[in-house]
Amino acid sequence: MTRIAYVNGKYCDHDLAHVHIEDRGYQFADGVYEVFAVLNKKIVDYDDHLKRLYRSLNEIKVKSPICKDAFLFIIRNLIRKNNVTNGLIYLQVTRGVAERDFKFPKNTKPSLIITSKKTSMDDYFSKFKKGIKVKITDDLRWKRVDIKTLNLLPPVLAKQKAIENGCDEAWMLDSEGFITEGSSSNAWILIKNKLITTPASNSILKGITRLSLIKALKKKKINLVEKKFNINDIKNADEAFITSATQFVMPVVKVDNIKIGKGKIGNYANIFKDAYMEAIQLK
Fold first, then answer.
1. What single string gives the DSSP state of each residue in 161-204?
2. What confidence tier does 179 reach under pLDDT thresholds 50, 70, 90?
3. Which of 2, 21, 160, 174 is the most core-located residue (most Cβ within 10 A)?
4. CB of 239 closer than 8 Å to CB of 268
5. Average pLDDT, stretch 201-223?
């Protein structure tokens, strides 16, 4: 079956999809994106993702290329056309195509691409049972990572360093010695039944999966604290986790040379995963 993408108003063969070489997303990373999970052909937490998309667009002063209802229509079409049961939707909006110049171009239409990808829940559950390893790296990103922009080179380098060190994810360390977040996820540790995650600010992306888990844990009356944590806190952690649209809730069993708990997933891992799955909104 041919994989179908959506590019600037047209559905097309994924292998033939393209944008102009002077698209500002390509030349300046002048754009934003969102990643939606798909479970059982339904979009996970769609409304919150779309709300964040519009916030990101507003922060970089780009108008949405289509109306809000059209996003849902196109995404559902891609899920159907590509027969995605479980998977991911990648959506990207740039300022559009213009002669290369740093200043904003006038009267340029924003570019929109949307693609889909199938994933296996069996693969997720298999990785969940084992947990993942994390590498600590320096946080080299700009000061507005709360905007979900295309400026992803620092997280790419962080992720690559993690992979080269036999890890699955990187946790980034700020200039004061605190963990901000993962290269493509939010970070959590559990100390004496208290779950800790970095508070939302300009220094982290306010993850939609993070938000859903927080809502779920409040309903379950789990002791949750949003505060900064450092390497010493990690050493004292009983359990650790990441959250993201691609990994949902994923336990961490090792950070650098620090074994979390006994190096195996702990008792709260399934509790948090199940709470999250119960709390998500499907559309």
1. HHHHTT-SEEEEE-TTSBEEEESSSEEEEEETTEEEEPPPSTTS
2. very high
3. 174
4. yes
5. 94
Instruction: Give rounded-to-5 percent helix, strand, coil for the chain.
Output: 30, 30, 40
Helix axis angle, 46-59 relative to 68-81, nearest 10°? 130
Q: In 3-state terms, what secondary structure has residue 227?
A: coil
CB atoms within 10 A of CB 206: 17
Q: Which residues pair with 237 in a beta bridge?
A: none
20: helix, coil or strand? coil
Of the candidates 135, 148, 159, 254, the residue annotated as catalytic is: 148
Report which of 238, 152, 250 is spatially closest to residue 195, judged by C-alpha positions.
238
Q: Is 148 a catalytic residue?
A: yes
Domains of the chain, each with CATH number or no CATH: 4-119 (3.30.470.10), 124-279 (3.20.10.10)
Locate 80 and state its tokens.
């159907």
Residue 85, φ and ψ in degrees, nearest 5: -90, -55
Amino acid at the residue 210: R
pLDDT tens-digit readout, 58-81? 999 999 999 999 999 999 999 999
Residues in contact with 104: Cβ distance below 8 Å, sequence separation at least 6, in sequence order? 61, 95
